[in-house]
Model the fold of this input.
Amino acid sequence: MFHIFKKKQSEQATTTKIPQHIAFICDGNRRWAEQRGLPPLMGHKAGVSNFEDLVDWFIKRGVSTISFFVFSTENWSRTKEEVDFLMDLFYSEMKKNMENAIKKNLRYRIVGSRKELPKKLADICDKLEEASAENTGGTVVFALNYGGQDEIVRAVNAAIENGQQIDKETFETFMDTGDLLPIDLVVRTSNEHRISNFLLWKLAYAELLFIPEHWPELVKSEKLWQHVLDEYTKRDRRFGGGKKKNYLGDKK
Done:
């Protein structure tokens, strides 16, 4: 389980090396509920509780972009009851985020294909992005109906339709995630050790952190949030060249 670090190490995490983009793979909602004798769907509801506090905490400590993998292109294979519950839950959360966008000056990005989403959910995703596009207080990203391979294939097709030869930088302009910072740290909960097709392009040089706690436990625990930053400060990032550097990404 989670190891509590000494106070001196925690203080260092908030004053030295801070990841500019943290991406969370939010795993274990159903297992969390089942372990407590609750209906599995209640795990999803617990997974969005305290979400605003988590975002506020990391942004106040210097993280500029936070991404959450909330629904993959493979998750449609779950039961209709669970998928319908999740679509309604996402819609309710997006409505709350419309308020946060104004109140907290946050920019929201929803990446993934919207063609398969219920119309009201797709519409509010559009409105949320439009309403928050100029906000500068931090960026919150939801990967919704998202698959890393699917994003790359869609970007290739868009580039072909555009009819021009492209380099890496130009190719990114066709991607859902093209305007986002490279990921510095990926955190996956529930003791799973996989990437699961998440933001493949952006995590090319990301540090990986796997923790045993389920997502509903992490979303409520400031000790775990601090643990995430503490772990990052101990990593030496080399980017294939053999030399350490404190990479913060290229802001666009």
